[in-house]
Every structure is written in structure tokens, then in C-alpha cells.
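Sequence in, structure out.
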Amino acid sequence: MKKMILLLALFATIQASMAEKRNEAHEDRAEVTMQTTQGKIVMVLYNETPIHRDNFLAQVRRGYYDGLLFHRIIASFMIQCGDSTSRDVSAQEFKNARGDDPYRLPAEIRFPQLFHRRGALAAARQGDHINLERKSSPYEFYIVWGKYFGPREMQAEQEKVLEREDSTRHFTFPQEVIDAYEIEGGTPHLDNEYTVFGEVIKGLDVVGQIQAAKTDSLDRPLKDIRIKKAWVSKERP
């Protein structure tokens, strides 16, 4: 028991150190704050993905996300928001409507620099069968929660990638990415498939609360969880 407590403390220290190093690089990046029914979430947007960054800032400035539901929640995976049809209905009334959501933003996948660590902000998209270019929704986003992956789990994830029929989708997880998934958690199977364009820097505990919400068979929360208000809390220099 004592050994486990020491190990958890060590992991927490390493997590804090990794987050601090990333935050040092965020000084010239825009930030968005979302006041949700569960609490406040602050996200930094990456300059490495300028199309997604500028689109997200534009949607926030026009008030698009104000009042929207987190309409899809999967525990130990992610929380999703951005469908305009969820604005005026309850979680139980909302039944997978897509709304005015053409998938048109060109992909800005920057793996392994940007990957699906816990707290990553990424753009939703349609599947490969109708979206081979991996274009993103200009509206829907998700925030990663995921789980922790030990060496064996990451080896299994690596094998899945290398077993894909399309060899152009093969890649190798660098050691620093493997370390991050072990220490911070995340969803490695989404890497190199979806555009990651930001990350949560404050309010990750709020994301944790939301992902743990009870849901129905369609992954809709039984109780409404909404974005009350979203705003640009820090402009780029």
C-alpha cells in the first residue's frame, strides 16, 4: 500500500512537470474559456494548427457554443459538443441529429508533435468511408479523457496500427508519446486520424466530472450538461 502511494505521488509529480513544460510554450497562444454547468474549462489553442485555431476562435466569438449540450459522452474516452440542434432540446430529446455540419476544414494532423493525451482538444469528423481526406467539422469538437496505457497496452496499440490494411496509415509511437500515455493517459488509437488543435490547461477535473456522467444507450447524458458561455479569454500577442 505504501509503495502504491509513493508510486502515485511520483506519477503526479511527473504529470505536473510535463504540464508545466508545455505551459511555458503557451505564452504566444490564444486561450478560450468555457463556463459549463459543471464548472470552468480553459483551453489553449495551438499555433501549429492555424486553420482549426482561427475557426474555433471565430465560432466562440460569434457565440456559437453558448447553450450547447455536451451531446456525446463516453466514460474513459471523451466528451463531445458542437451540434447546433442540441441548443434548444434536452439531452434525452436530442437523438443524433447532425445539424448544419458540413465536414470541410482541411486536416491539420501534426502527429507526433500533437497527440491525444488526456485533455487534448480535437475536431470531430466523418469516417474514412466517406472522408478519406480526414476533413474536420467546423463546429463539433471533443476533449480527450481516455485511460492510462502501460507498456503492454501501448505495444498492443502499436501492433494494431501496423496491422492496418492501408499501409499509408502505419506509424510508430515515439518514446515520449508512449511515456505520456503511461503517465497522463489518453486515447492513442485516435492518433494520426483526427486533428488535435489545443488542450485543456485549467479545469481538467471538470472534464473528469463530465466524462463520468451517466448516459443512455446513445451516449447522451441523462442530465443536461451544457456550455453556458464561451469566450476568448486570451488573444494572441
